[in-house]
Automatic annotation (TrEMBL):
Organism: Candidatus Hepatoplasma crinochetorum Av
Record-linked InterPro entries: Ran_GTPase-activating, RCC1/BLIP-II, Reg_chr_condens
Annotated Pfam families: RCC1
Organism phylogeny: Bacteria, Bacillati, Mycoplasmatota, Mollicutes, Candidatus Hepatoplasmataceae
Protein's recorded name: Regulator of chromosome condensation (RCC1) repeat protein
Length: 936
């Protein structure tokens, strides 16, 4: 799209391509550091882009680069293949353009430029290439051309003067010529499609086209002055004329013609078209100033007016717009077409400075504004955009259309320098920035559609659109494209990707790093990690860096050029120097990690969850099985291994830590460590506790309790995990402890853990005072000595156990009352009854629903057979039957029913003894009674 800033000093522009390619490595292989490559014009076509460059700093362009869509040969490289990187373009069979490139224009599917071959500062030669379906190339045919081709009027070898201005519409083309060589254009040539009268010669419309240049004049036959600006939209055309006698070079009369379907002619009508140039004025009847910028594109028109050219700051600039407003591109807050020039402002009616440039794209618009109203300030610093945003071409991070001018900033939230130029395509936008404020643009930002590679960054049709402006190219020698710091093995590294596609850097750059305290670190170049061809340089930062500390980098100094990176923080990796097994239990172990070698300010919580990840690798040596456990380290610096096997040998083979980029960066440098898990701790079965009531004396009593998870020693004289000589501890309601003495034990059965068993024990508690009806109330038991254990493990009873004086507590089994119920015998069980004397009812109990101080039927009754094997029975609930008063005053006699389970079918059992506890001294003889279980 054409861009002429007629009232602004043309600024030389420097640019480099942010991605290297052999296609443009030869741009200037002899350039030296400090020399500049100057961009003269940047253009965005509908779906292609181009740059003209001054490689010898003579003030004129001599080189052209193009990229993007190329289906009609509009790139000019003799192919029809899209180009995703900038490539150098030359006329066929030529080494250069034969002079200085003066003007450059892209639109639709066509490209063109003008050249000054006699080096007098004025163009005299026109090159065209690309689409020619409507004769827009101007060579008298409608055949596309894929390389630049010289164009002249029919039967002429030149234009009869200097080419002053040149522009492309979608399918039509125009140039203005200075025939009398006074420096101002006086003749207009047009060619290409005339479907809507856009040629302006009152010729055939509809399918009509003119494949050769035609001289165009208004109906009066004369323009009435010098032709200043020529601009072409998709299907409409306009010129500005300087009719002043002083010929100041600024237009003051506007002619328009061509398509008017959306009011883009500006004559207060909508529809139809004008086949000849007509003068256009605003509704006020006068423009009230001179024209400093004129721009057409799509079906829209714009004109920038200055009411006082003697005001150097141009504070009186006024923007007029009209035409298609389908996407809000007029900027008046609506989507209604506008058929007369209308003043446009932001919503607050204040541009915040002076407008210096206007650019229109396909259904979207832009201006750049200088908010600094200093005298002689010739650069803009603020960008406004509005209209269609389908591809993110407005650069505001969305794809939502904007109906009013809206301030736009790039992805980093500020323009790094002055805005010198802007050009819009049909869905992509480009902005040139003077990054280092040396009055020369050096960086190109782009946003929007990249379907054909028109952003020039190597993208393709599968790439996402750029929704915010990002720096694509830059020419500042050694300017950072991006950087990344790395930390490994107590060394800090930095990788720099530099923008040096032009090969300005011929030696390895000298790099220094400065922190926020002003300390400067030297660096050492690492050749093996660098890729100089791709401008990627890798350095080790020389210095001693403390582990686990944060360092703040203020700037990177490249060959003496300091670039601020805005307090970039680097957190050095923490170190785990060693480890030890701090706690070993039967089924778990705790590993403690040593992080004391990190800095004083170290905080593990400053790292990401991944970076805090630790992986411990360990082996069950008994089974030769390897395991891994991953944990996120917290400030306890411990790892707990669970679900270990009891009495098992383990080895910690290695510990890895600091997970980053898919792997662990570090391993603790330490030999493997072995440990053995402990035996399973014994476990008291709480509700198995029972007082042996007839054992109660004035100062002692015996009781039974079941202890599970016991492991007998090799000779079965004791247990590996419990020393019976330590006894057991009773705890009363006042939290007093009483050590009980071991008397006897009997095996009950297997534990749930292999190799461990369940036993019933008899203990004696001495040292009591049970005289005078004294009572002890016990609440729990513990295997831990409370005087040597910080937090003893106590097993509490469901209900407190009361022990009273012996004269009220002795019970008696009436052995001759033992009866087996024949009708209860099954294949694996039977029921029996037994009477018990001297039972003392609890205070809150009654005869029909008894509970007793000296007997708990739920503890069951034990039978012993003639093979000396015992069987525990279960109480049948609510089976207690009151018989009468007991033999001792204040006691009662009851009959109870119990059930023996887990017998073998079709087997004969003869029972000879009975007891309330499974302890040899307490068994009493009964009349031998035989039972045969049923068959299955």
């Amino acid at each position: 799209m054409k861009k002429i800033i007629s009232a602004i000093t043309i600024i030389p522009i420097v640019i480099a391509f942010g991605y290297n390619s052999s296609n443009y490595k030869d741009l200037n292989e002899n350039v030296k550091l400090g020399e500049k490559i100057v961009l003269k014009d940047f253009e965005a076509g509908d779906f292609h882009s181009g740059i003209t460059i001054d490689t010898d700093e003579n003030g004129y362009a001599d080189t052209l680069y193009m990229w993007g869509r190329n289906d009609k040969g509009q790139i000019g490289n003799a192919t029809a293949i899209n180009q995703f990187y900038p490539i150098k373009i030359l006329p066929q069979n030529q080494n250069d353009w034969g002079g200085n490139i003066i003007d450059f224009s892209l639109n639709g599917l066509t490209s063109g430029l003008t050249v000054d071959t006699n080096l007098d500062g004025y163009a005299d030669t026109l090159y065209m290439w690309g689409n020619n379906s409507k004769g827009e190339i101007g060579d008298g045919t409608i055949k596309n051309t894929t390389t630049p081709k010289i164009i002249t009027p029919t039967d002429q070898t030149n234009w009869g003067g200097n080419i002053i201005d040149f522009d492309l519409g979608y399918n039509h083309t125009g140039v203005t010529i200075d025939t009398n060589l006074d420096g101002y254009a006086d003749t207009l040539y047009m060619w290409g499609s005339n479907q809507y009268g856009q040629i302006g010669n009152n010729g055939t419309t509809g399918t009509g086209y003119y494949p050769s240049p035609q001289i165009i004049n208004p109906e009066s036959g004369t323009w009435g002055g010098n032709i200043v600006d020529l601009d072409l939209g998709y299907n409409h055309t306009g010129v500005t004329i300087d009719t002043d006698s002083i010929n100041d070079g600024y237009g003051n009369v506007l002619y328009m013609w061509g398509n008017n379907s959306n009011g883009q002619i500006g004559n207060e009508t909508t529809g139809g078209f004008s086949t000849t140039p007509i003068i256009v004025v605003p509704q006020s009847g006068t423009w009230n100033g001179t024209f400093i910028d004129f721009e057409l594109n799509g079906d829209d028109s714009s004109l920038l007016i200055n009411e006082n050219l003697e005001d150097p700051a141009r504070t009186n600039n006024t923007l007029y717009m009209w035409g298609n407003n389908q996407y809000g591109q007029i900027g008046n807050g609506t989507e209604i077409d506008v058929s007369t020039p209308t003043i446009i402002t932001p919503e607050n009616n204040d541009w915040g400075g002076s407008i210096y440039d206007v650019s229109l794209g396909g259904n979207y618009s832009s201006v750049v504004v200088n908010s600094n109203e200093e005298i002689n300030e010739q650069y803009a610093d603020t960008l406004y955009m509005w209209g269609n945003n389908q591809y993110g071409q407005l650069g505001n991070g969305t794809i939502t259309n904007l109906l009013t001018p809206t301030m736009i900033t790039p992805k980093n939230d500020q323009w790094q320098g002055k805005i010198t130029d802007i050009s819009l395509g049909n869905g992509h936008s480009g902005i040139l920035i003077d990054y280092n404020n040396d009055s020369i643009a050096d960086t190109l930002y782009m946003a929007g559609n990249d379907a054909y590679g028109q952003l020039g960054n190597g993208g393709n049709a599968s790439d996402d659109n750029l929704l915010e402006f990002e720096a694509i190219f830059s020419t500042i020698p050694n300017i950072l494209n991006n950087y990344q710091f790395y930390y490994l093995n107590n060394k800090l590294f930095v990788q720099l990707n530099l923008n040096d596609a032009l090969n300005v850097i011929n030696d390895i750059p000298s790099i220094k790093i400065k922190d926020n305290n002003g300390k400067i670190y030297n660096t050492t170049f690492i050749d093996g990690r660098s890729n100089i061809e791709e401008d990627s340089y890798y350095y080790r930062i020389d210095g001693d860096f403390i582990r686990g500390e944060e360092y703040t980098i203020d700037s990177i100094i490249i060959d003496g050029y300091e670039i601020n990176i805005e307090d970039y923080s680097i957190l050095t990796d923490y170190i785990i120097s060693d480890y030890w097994v701090s706690i070993i239990n039967s089924t778990d172990a705790t590993i403690s990690l040593n992080l004391t070698q990190n800095g004083e300010a170290f905080d593990i919580n400053n790292y990401t969850n991944d970076q805090r990840q630790v992986k411990i690798n360990y082996t069950n040596l008994d089974l030769n099985t390897t395991y891994h456990k991953k944990v996120t380290l917290d400030d306890s610096y411990k790892i707990k291994l669970n679900n270990l096997s009891i009495d098992t040998n383990y080895q910690i083979t290695s510990i890895q830590y600091f997970y980053e980029d898919g792997s662990y960066k570090y391993k603790i440098e330490q030999d493997p460590m072995t440990f053995i898990t402990k035996s399973q701790n014994p476990s008291i079965i709480a509700n198995s506790f029972g007082v042996i009531n007839y054992s109660i004396t004035n100062n002692s009593f015996n009781y039974s309790v079941e202890i599970d998870n016991l492991k007998p020693n090799a000779d079965e004289t004791g247990f590996e995990n419990y020393d019976v000589n330590n006894g057991i501890w009773l705890i009363d309601q006042n939290n007093n402890y009483y050590n009980s003495t071991y008397l006897d034990s009997n095996l009950i059965g297997y534990s749930s853990i292999a190799g461990y068993y369940d036993y019933e024990f008899i203990f004696q508690q001495n040292g009591l005072n049970l005289e005078n009806n004294n009572t002890y109330i016990f609440t729990g038991l513990s295997l831990d000595n409370p005087f040597y254990t910080e937090n003893p493990e106590i097993v509490y009873f469901d209900e407190p156990i009361t022990v009273e004086s012996s004269e009220n507590s002795e019970i008696s089994l009436i052995t001759d009352s033992f009866v087996i119920f024949e009708n209860s015998i099954t294949s694996n069980s039977f029921e029996f009854s037994i009477q018990i004397d001297n039972l003392k009812l609890k205070d809150n109990s009654n005869i029909n629903n008894p509970t007793f101080n000296n007997f708990n039927p739920y503890n069951g009754i034990f039978l012993k057979d003639d093979s000396n094997k015992y069987y525990q029975s279960d109480y049948i609930e609510n089976s207690a039957i009151y018989i009468g008063k007991g033999s001792i005053e204040g006691t009662e006699k009851y009959q109870f029913t119990f059930k023996v389970n887990n017998l073998i079918p079709n087997t004969e059992y003869t029972f000879i003894e009975i007891s309330t506890i499974n302890y040899e001294d307490y068994y009493q003889s009964i009349t031998p009674t035989t039972v045969r279980t049923d068959s299955i």
